[in-house]
Each structure stands twice: as structure tokens, then as C-alpha cells.
Amino acid sequence: MKSLLLITTLLIIPGLFARAASAEQEKAFVAKYKDALEANDSATLQSVLYTTGADPMIVGFYKMMQSGGAGDKVSKIELVDLTPDDVKKATAPQDSPNGGKVCLNLKPTKKLVIVIEKKDENGSSTNTTENFIAEKDGKFVIPVPGPCK
Asked: What is the pTM of this model?
């Protein structure tokens, strides 16, 4: 009986710490991305792109899209769980701008949702951006599509 209790404890406790570390990693990733976006730090923004096996044209598009809201004040940023529709979208092949099909080269586990609100003398606007997030080597990354395998 004592052995069973010991084995159960040894299996459960590391799992609890792993989840706590994951939540801390999520907070750190979101804070890093928000700071880089508001500071227009393109090097940091591009460092989270996972481009291994990605289509070079699509990599350029992702870099351009990242710089689109750079320097603006982020009103909301969060890492959220994928919905069933998100999972379908993430796993489905998409049309490539070069022709053919492309797929994400890593399986997403989360989605980064960024809301930027702008107000000026002409009125106000809200821009919401969503990026799939995957984990690679213990880091959160934005997978960039490449040829389907």
C-alpha cells in the first residue's frame, strides 16, 4: 500500500509543477511579445517565428504582418486554448500564393489574440490579430506554413 502511494505521489507531483511552469512560460511569452510589439522590436518579433521548412514568400508575409501593428499600444493580448474550429483550420492544407498547398509545420497548441485600438481626430478603430502558437524545444513559437508533407 505504501509503495502504491509513493508511486502515485511521484507521478502526480511533477505534473503539478510542469503545469505551473507552463503557466509562467505563457505569461513570459505574452509579456515579451507585447513589449516587442509596442517597442517596434522587429528582431524579437521575428525570433518567435518558426520558419524551418516554411515557404520563403510566406515568411516574408508573416514578417510584414508582424510589423503592421508594431509601435502601437496593445489594448489586449492573451494566449487562449484552441477551439475545435481552430484545430480544423490549423490542420487543413491551405492554398499557397505560389500555387499548391501549404500546411503548418508544427502542431499548434494555443492561439495568440492581439487587440490594438487606435483613436485619433478621425475616430477610432480596432484591429484584432490571431496567430497559432506551437511549442518547440520548450519555447512558444509562431509556426509559418510550408509545403505539406
From this structure: 0.81
